[in-house]
Write a structure and sequence with these properties.
The chain contains 10 helices and no strands. It is mainly α. The protein folds into 2 domains: 158 residues, no CATH class; 126 residues, no CATH class. The longest helix has 30 residues.
Length: 285
């Protein structure tokens, strides 16, 4: 399937899934709270994407979920919790900027459903008999739960009283800053790949972190947490951010580095000289 046709199909599927998600939310809302009704709708939408993934025999259909569905959830919470003031739109705009950036990044790198993410291919090889079980719980449902928990600070804000609005604005700046870091890092990576396809990148942001695009993503979620401090310091809002740090540092980064070590003969030098995740001064060669 060509990239163009794959994008049309993806748009159609996600449109149907969003309608189903709204319907699921309305049904669940009649018997439970906004938070749990949203979680139920989120799981329903994830399951529908999973079913479509089986149909296409490609788990990469889930990839846009990470950036598309959070916007739906945020709009739903703003509407249901009656938060449409200026400060609420600041939060929404920050999330929307991040979502547009990440979705456009996915579209740019997307090759069509003739291609599947290398991590999912590895799962197929590692768990051939139970791959779709692993796909549902590991590729689809687990990230959905992590993102939902990481969005929770916004719900926390909108169900409590803001005492220090300054933290909302600081958080918003961090969110947009994280999205911009990821944008610049991915742009630099693409240019480098065109000019030096066989060389590992060690210029721009990539000289201060081996994964500045991942760092920017985690920084965005840190901004969401910081926004919740406007209500007060609490344990529950930070769980999502900690989960994101763990996800990227214990899975995403090691998996990507394993691939780069296999594909780039000079990547060990990058590991030896460039900081792993957080931005720091690089070591001398």
């Amino acid at each position: 399937m060509s990239k163009k046709r794959s994008l049309y199909v993806t748009t159609l599927i996600y449109s149907i899934v969003l309608i189903a998600g709204l319907y699921s939310y309305l049904l669940a809302r009649s018997v439970t709270s906004v938070l749990y009704a949203t979680l139920i709708a989120d799981v329903v939408m994830t399951t529908l994407i999973f079913v479509a993934s089986i149909g296409f025999n490609n788990s990469s259909l889930y990839d846009p979920y990470w950036s598309v569905i959070p916007v739906f959830i945020v709009v739903l919470w703003m509407r249901e919790l009656h938060h449409m003031m200026w400060i609420d739109w600041v939060l929404f705009t920050s999330v929307f900027v991040w979502a547009i950036r990440l979705t456009m990044n996915w579209i740019t790198d997307f090759k069509g459903y003739n291609h599947e993410d290398f991590r999912y291919v590895d799962f197929r090889k590692q768990f051939p008999k139970i791959y779709w079980l692993v796909s549902y719980f590991g590729i689809h449902l687990f990230p959905t739960v992590i993102v939902f928990i990481s969005l929770y600070p916004l719900y926390f804000i909108w169900t409590n009283t803001i005492n220090s609005p300054m933290y909302v604005y600081i958080g918003a700046l961090i969110m947009i800053g994280g999205a911009m870091i990821s944008y610049v890092a991915d742009h630099q990576r693409r240019i480098h790949k065109l000019q030096h396809p066989n060389q590992s990148i060690r210029t721009g942001l990539w000289q201060y972190s081996r994964h500045p695009n991942y760092f920017g993503e985690v920084f965005f979620w840190f901004g969401i947490y910081i926004s919740s401090v406007s209500v007060g310091v609490a344990l529950s809002p930070i769980v999502g951010f900690v989960s994101m740090v763990a996800l990227f540092n214990f899975y995403s980064v090691p998996k990507m580095e394993d691939k780069l070590l296999q594909n780039k003969t000079d990547y060990q030098l990058v590991i030896d000289t460039v900081p792993r995740f957080f931005f720091r001064k690089p070591k001398a060669d």
